[in-house]
Amino acid sequence: MARLLLIEDDLTIRTPLIRALRERGHAVAAASTAMAGLRDALEDRPDLVVLDLGLPDLDGRELLRMLRAVSAVPVIVATARDDETEIVRVLDAGADDYVVKPFTAAQLDARARAVLRRAPGGGTPDPTLVVGGLRVDPRSRQVTLDGAQVELTPREFDLLHHLAARPGQVVTKRELLSEVWQIPYGGADKTVDVHLSWLRRKLGESAQEPRYLHTVRGVGVRLESPRATG
Ligand code: CA
After folding, report:
1. Per-residue pLDDT of the chain (230 residues; tens, 9 = 90+)
2. How do 142-145 and 170-172 pair as beta strands?
3. C-alpha 230 to ligand 1 mean position (Å)
4. How far is the CA of 166 from the centre of ligand 1 (A)?
5. What residues pack around ion ligand 1 (CB closer than 5 A)?
6. Which of 142, 141, 122, 121 is nearest to 1 (CA)?
7. How many other CB atoms are there within 10 angstroms of residue 117's CB atom?
8. pTM
9. Which are the contacts of 216, defined by CB distance < 8 A and separation ≥ 6?
10. Which UniProt keywords are present, listed alphabetically (predicted)?
């Protein structure tokens, strides 16, 4: 099952395609103009975009370029033009694959699954990070510790995910500010300290008696399985 966004203005294509893709277990949203499609792609963050090249307000290739400037979402282009030059152009413009009209839902579904398998975090492998008894799942944004759910704010989740992706490594506060808070220069270290202390409390530990989160004085913080430190 994937969340697909179909950008297609032709109702005679769109309606049956939506139905067929839903029957195959996908969640399908649709847009009928390039600008609505661009907005939906950015706001709804689908797993994959199916993009018609002939749209009323903008050429699909232009939309592909705009989308590629701001997003890495996989894109399959649906083209009525079965011509080599056109296909090379859309692949060069950042499309992951293409289908030539008329195409069946079965073909599109197979190509979508193939593209998603190659996409980072799509299909396999499971992107869940496991450090000791801690499981951090970026898809559902859920965290469990020794099997029990831990309720985190979005920022705490991002902070924990960043650290859990680098187990055993010291991560500087500057890096956390820039990667998690997206504050490129300076910023207040206190922000990081405060969130780390909230995170510690939720994980049932403290700076004095750390289990997973170890402060490295003057440098940053390291997340490590308590089993690793013995
Ligand atoms: Ca069209």
Report:
1. 788 999 999 999 999 999 999 988 888 999 999 999 999 998 888 999 999 999 999 999 999 999 998 888 999 999 887 788 889 999 988 999 999 999 999 999 999 999 998 877 554 456 788 898 999 998 889 999 999 999 999 999 999 999 999 999 999 998 999 889 888 766 677 889 999 999 999 999 998 999 999 999 888 999 999 876 54
2. unpaired
3. 62
4. 45
5. 9-10, 52, 54
6. 122
7. 10
8. 0.55
9. 170, 222
10. DNA-binding, Phosphoprotein, Transcription, Transcription regulation, Two-component regulatory system
In the structure encoding, which two tokens stand for residue 130, read together? 């496991």
Place of tokens 């989160």: 213
Same domain, 173 and 93: no
Select from 92, 118, 144 the last residue of a domain.
118
- At which of 97, 118, 139 does a domain end? 118
Are 161 and 137 within one domain? yes
